[in-house]
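@channel anyone free to eyeball this complex?
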Amino acid sequence: MSRKGCFILIFSLILVFGMLTPVLAAPGIVDLIKPISDVKTVNKNMIISGWAEMDTVIEIRVYSREKKEVDGQETYSWEEYLPSGKEVRIIVGPTGFFARQVELKNGVNKIVINAVNPDDQQENIEGIVTLSSKEEVRQAVQNLMNTSFLDMIRKIIK
Amino acid sequence: MDKERIKTWVLVGLVLLSFAFTTQLWLSVPLERIISTSQTHSGQDSIKDYDLSSFVLPQWIVVNFGGGSHTKLINDSSNRRLFGDIYDGVSLITEHIFAGEQEIEFVPVEMEELDAARGSRSIEVEYKGSFDTALFEEVYGGGKNRDGFPFVGIKAVIISPGSDGEIFIYDGKSQGVFKTVLSTSGTGLDRLVKELEENDPVKYWTLREIGYSDNDKFYVPLEMGSFSLPAGTAVKEIDVSDQQLVDMYASDFFSDMSMVRKITEMNGSIIYTDGQNALLRINSGGSLEYLSYSYVGGDSGSTDIISAIHTAISFIEEHGGIPEQLFLEEMLEVAENSHRGYRFKFNYAYNGLPFFRKGALEASAVEVTVVEGRVVKYYRNIHQITRARIVQMPLLYPVEAADVVAGIIRGPGDAKVSPDILDMYLGYCIDIEEVRDYQIFPAWYIKTEEREFLVDAYRGQLVE
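replying in thread with the prediction:
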């Protein structure tokens, strides 16, 4: 009976720790204040900030989507956008806080955050941020206001 | 014979020349031309034309563009024109409030309403201290004493430009917010805000916006590449080794120098006293302290704050001169031997940034106590910048400066510490602990709940 009990206990422990392992193996190295995925903004400057363990090395890179014409066909590529004098690397200090202002280009931008904590664990966070001009937003709102509710219903039914 | 005649004429010419040069030697030359400006006791590049408004100046102006976008203007060389234009526009409104034909009614509002104005298109003019309303009445109202203002002190004026512009006054003494509605169309403020926005200035953020804490009372930049703050050296205004200069300073404080005793201390400091009325101590470090024992001779009828500040400013001008970029930092009501009076604290700036003195963070550059219309205490510690050099290093980010502070206050077992920062801004630090050439360098001033810190903004080291 006791052997059976021990077996069940060991099996249960293996099961519990087995479930916990993926959680322990992928720790949230960086805790961002604001998410960076699928953001639409009119501000050219964006803040990437958050909390992390002291001595964590964080690299923040911004890529803008550039349109190119290859053999008469439009293709898109990501090009790193780094204004002069800007550092991409941050080493988190004793406050555990980091903050960097990144500059966006008009259109679609990709932000890539790469963090490595003192235990050499790594985390990659990516997000797409779309920068629109205030004029574009104003125009979009105007179009929305000009479209009647009935037209919108008709479009949906079609 | 001819040769003899030539010799005679040459001799006559030489004699005449000697007369001419002798006259030149005894020409009356003004003192300023003999002693260079830096050695005279008229202060660093003293300004002669001034009034009270020259000292009641904002420490900075924050321009909000709406949508969480702000910039902070300091009266430095790169922003002087825009800073001046915006402040002139704000001054027109302040003048209208204090001296306009119609009475302006202010109503108390909640802080949330002020926060909403700060979140949209607006201008914030912030003073170092919360100054008595009477001071603004004097500066902008030409002395008109208006009843009915619900605020007692002004710490900040916040303006939302427009035909129905909202004007907020933040009273730092009562912590209250008061609002009125006025047209700001004639001030050009709207145009200036647009112009500034088009110039794409350095953006500033509150700690709440960057997610560090809930504090939204001050702004910090997160883009340091566009700052170009020189470092340099300075000398003390009064050098005790120059006996002639020190005696000249002292003679300004005593009407009859024949009655004055001079004592030189072991460390080089010099004390002048007439034994009865006053004592002057000029420290070897270059600071000056004056103490009057007697309240006789002052205008005892003029005990109000306005008379007191005029007395204080005149005294500064007559006793060392008005240093360039001097501004009023704080005004306090004090009691000296049961006599009511006022203490005025002044500081001065370099390129728009205030000075801090290493080893004397609490002390102001100039302090004047006026009781019964007479200056009874005077403290002055001014340094003159002799050299400035461009530093090819990036300035420390504010978060990095906070890290320096956290590193100091962190206990041995603590993994990380986030100091509760109440205020933070850039200034200049003078290392007055050195012997002769004092180093000046940009520094982050950080105020937490418990202490104040200065962090070298280039080297990232704690200064104080």
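from a first look: The radius of gyration of chain B is 27 Å.
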